[in-house]
Amino acid sequence: MAEKHPTEIASIGEFGLIDRLTRDFAPVNSATVRGVGDDAAVIAPAGADEVSLCTTDLLMEGVDFDLTYFPLRHLGYKAVVEAVSDLLAMNGRAEQLLVSLGVSSKMSVEALEELYEGIRVACRELGVDLAGGDVKASVTGLAIHVTALGRVRREALTCRDGARLHDLICITGDLGAAYMGLHLLEREKRVLRDVQNPEPQFKGYEYLLQRYLKPRARRDVVEALAEEKIVPTAMIDLSDGLASDLLQICKASKCGARIYLDKIPIARQTTAFAEELHADPVVAALNGGEDHELLFTVPLAMQEQVMRMGGIDVIGHITAPEAGAMLVTPDGSEIRLKAQGFREEA
Amino acid sequence: MAEKHPTEIASIGEFGLIDRLTRDFAPVNSATVRGVGDDAAVIAPAGADEVSLCTTDLLMEGVDFDLTYFPLRHLGYKAVVEAVSDLLAMNGRAEQLLVSLGVSSKMSVEALEELYEGIRVACRELGVDLAGGDVKASVTGLAIHVTALGRVRREALTCRDGARLHDLICITGDLGAAYMGLHLLEREKRVLRDVQNPEPQFKGYEYLLQRYLKPRARRDVVEALAEEKIVPTAMIDLSDGLASDLLQICKASKCGARIYLDKIPIARQTTAFAEELHADPVVAALNGGEDHELLFTVPLAMQEQVMRMGGIDVIGHITAPEAGAMLVTPDGSEIRLKAQGFREEA
Asked: Which DSSP letter does residue A328 get?
């Protein structure tokens, strides 16, 4: 293969790469309502008021997880949550799951059963059926691939491209804790590398570990929105960090955004551990990712209704596209939000 | 994690492993018509005479392909064919595709574009839309994961469990050529390892290379069956070799089988290269895999109709379960068919 000017992936970023790779694929089936470019593919079933949803997630050992401290049971659970969370972000519900594994022959059946136990628990909690999959050999590390299928009423379908001027920017839960949990685990691994009977120190930071090792899928939020008859104008799963994910909405909706630093919900333990590291917890919230909370926009008129729901914070509003996506600090200065690049390591 | 008696995967085999991992997942959604245990998951859309199909395939570098001789364009093409072939084996058609990649940062964008070019060509040929996916970093090798979605009329749906006593066992195309193509490539790689300007010798064996590097998805067969109004009683994609795949049908349909060695279609080049290696071409046909032809069963009464279609060979018939799955040699002796185990290398 002739490569005149090889381009490094890092130079165009993950999203740039996907854009570039997928730009020439025009759908030919009328049932393909929505393809590349959102959390899930949308496929119209024949003659119903619903559309089907399908999403895929690939987790690679050494990049997305480190088996030295990631219990396999939690890993299975988290793999399901990550896929299901993508369907929730379309305002849909997950119904089926297909799991493919690439595994080294060094792994025992019992180890894989632990992994599947986590998958089973998540499936039960989330009302999802395991509906297929594959186990293949791997000469490298463990690869976990999850495909989730689901559905959503046509009028409730929420994509990334529906945010409109003055819409409120809302987020569920708190941000940055998963990222801090990962840092905590990495620190203890480093410190205890040559210790005989390591006793990692996690006291006071249990919440951070839980957020990283066993994140929740926010099905409760999607159900609460339905109960309140609120259909967000746009929604995305917070998996890459607030900055990256908000920029995805801005790009798809062709708009700008203003969010306020002091409105971003950050848990006490996240702030405490950041202080211990002499780091800024806001950076964790903006760039950390893996929180699997939901970021969504609603019309300004719904402010009171959204606030009443509880557990949701309004952190800013949608602006004109030329304004860009800005973070406003307490002293009133504005910082332009940047997406993260292609990451070699988690 | 406590592991009292670690079981090696090899000791229970790939299918045993999948059985063991998935046995406790009872579907809870009525729409999950069929889950684990067939080529694709079957999902009922609301109020239609069709069901949706979804299948996933994971290809790992070093196991499923070797980039030293597998052109990326062909690899992309083959990845699509493998997934689509699973839907064809349900007697369905593929409509959407989701592709997830785990890639090393050492890979150039151009290399990945080559891969996607192959995906694009296959999508165009097969009338499938790329409808989603993901690109992740990988610290190990390239991982390609494909999810294919499609549909089939309810009354045309063909699973593995419908084979009945006296049904004819039919196969399309010829078998063992892909396996021989792989052996040819591996041989040339070994021979030319330390040669400065290697010129591999493939003359006379072009068909074997094509079968391994660029297999076809037999959409033509599924369309021809529909035209003839033939709905097979059972069908499977020939990806693991005739022995393994026929045993899958026997297991699901609770039946036995008798196939005749001299009826198994083997291409001239397959036989020629096997002779060069002092190997038995029948072994390649039985255990080789990756031919992506279709193995199906039809009622005995359809014999003439199937033969008239052309390109289809009747190689035996379904027997009672206690008879087992047997290969009958030309001298009349019977050999019990065995499935392959978990393979570390392709």
From this structure: E
